[in-house]
Design goal:
Elements lengths: L9 E4 L5 H12 L3 E6 L3 H10 L4 E5 L7 H13 L4 E6 L14 H22 L3 E10 L12 H21 L5 E7 L2 E2 L12 H7 L7 E2 H12 L10 E4 L9
Helix pairs in contact: 1-7, 3-4, 4-5
The chain binds NADP nicotinamide-adenine-dinucleotide phosphate.
NADP nicotinamide-adenine-dinucleotide phosphate (NAP) binds next to α1.
Pfam family, one: adh_short_C2
Organism: Kribbella sindirgiensis
Family: Belongs to the short-chain dehydrogenases/reductases (SDR) family.
Length: 252
């Protein structure tokens, strides 16, 4: 995949203190971007991400899903950019699935919606004046929107909302040349969730259901995000791009 030179572009990646967000920050920085490395609680993790990208950016700390969350991100970004434009927004931070419907609670549901839907939506609203014409918005969804998993119903609902937002905002923002897309990872092994994949038989089960025959890593997803964020993807908008290696495509 060819990712065009992105020198002088500025990207904000939410939830970049670890996992897929960190890999996206690394990939965008490798393409030349200056990266605003956002974190919720793990400042040390965000600083490690910044160090990994050679200090090419800055750190923004703000818990999402709480009152004042979006204002805090925007104020910090504004102060760092000092009048410069933002070119790429990656909505990556998300709360984890809250379990099957029988075990879910209204509080957990509200938290999922606040972090996974309300925060990216209003972050986009507040950042639009700062976003370049021909800018990029990429939101991280999940295969959970096309693969029924009863342990993740409310989580999948929030990702479904992100995908709907992607299509409708693409229509609205096309007039400014801004593309809006989503990337849907499958089961993706990261430093943080590695232990889950040690569960006996789980990795084998996932691999057996994956067309490309292996478990995905954060880099696999980051490459796709970086492409959509690049000038080379200028003619793609309103799409949900599956980045799962073909997880659960059909009968094997
Ligand atoms: P992760 O390792 O759990 O990391 C989540 C990141 O989001 C962290 O940087 C965390 O920051 C931040 N975050 C979470 N809640 C936050 C909050 N309330 N406020 C601010 N920041 C918050 O996640 P991941 O596995 O890399 O997943 C990244 C994205 O891919 C998510 O959208 C996830 O739904 C999606 N996805 C992942 C998989 C997978 O298998 N890994 C599969 C499908 C979709 P702090 O630690 O600093 O708080």
């Amino acid at each position: 995949m060819i990712v065009s030179n992105m020198n002088a572009k500025v990207a904000l990646v939410t939830g970049a203190s670890r996992g897929i967000g960190r890999a996206i920050a690394e990939r965008l920085a490798a393409a030349g971007c200056e990266v605003a490395v956002h974190y919720g609680r793990d400042k040390a993790g965000a600083e490690e991400t910044l160090a990994r990208i050679g200090g090419r950016g800055f750190v923004i700390g703000a818990e999402l899903g709480v009152p004042g969350d979006v204002e805090s991100v925007v104020d910090q970004l504004d102060a760092e950019l000092a009048g410069r434009r933002l070119d790429v927004l990656v909505n990556n931070a998300a709360a984890s699935p809250a379990g099957p419907i029988g075990a879910d609670t209204e509080a957990a549901f509200d938290r999922l919606v606040a972090v996974n839907v309300r925060a990216p939506y209003f972050l986009i609203q507040r950042l639009l004046p700062m976003l370049s014409d021909d800018g990029r918005i990429v939101s991280i969804s999940s295969v959970a929107t096309r693969m029924a998993n009863p342990a993740q119903t409310s989580f999948a609902m929030t990702k479904g909302a992100l995908e709907t937002m992607t299509v409708t905002l693409a229509q609205e923002l096309g007039a400014r040349g801004i593309t809006v897309n989503a990337v849907a990872p499958g089961a993706t092994r990261t430093e943080a969730n590695g232990a889950i994949f040690e569960t006996p038989g789980l990795t084998e089960l996932i691999v057996a259901q994956t067309a490309l025959g292996r478990l995905g890593g954060a880099d696999d997803v980051a490459e796709v995000v970086a492409f959509l964020a690049s000038p080379a993807a200028r003619w793609i908008t309103g799409q949900v791009v599956d980045a799962s290696g073909g997880l659960h495509l059909g009968v094997g």
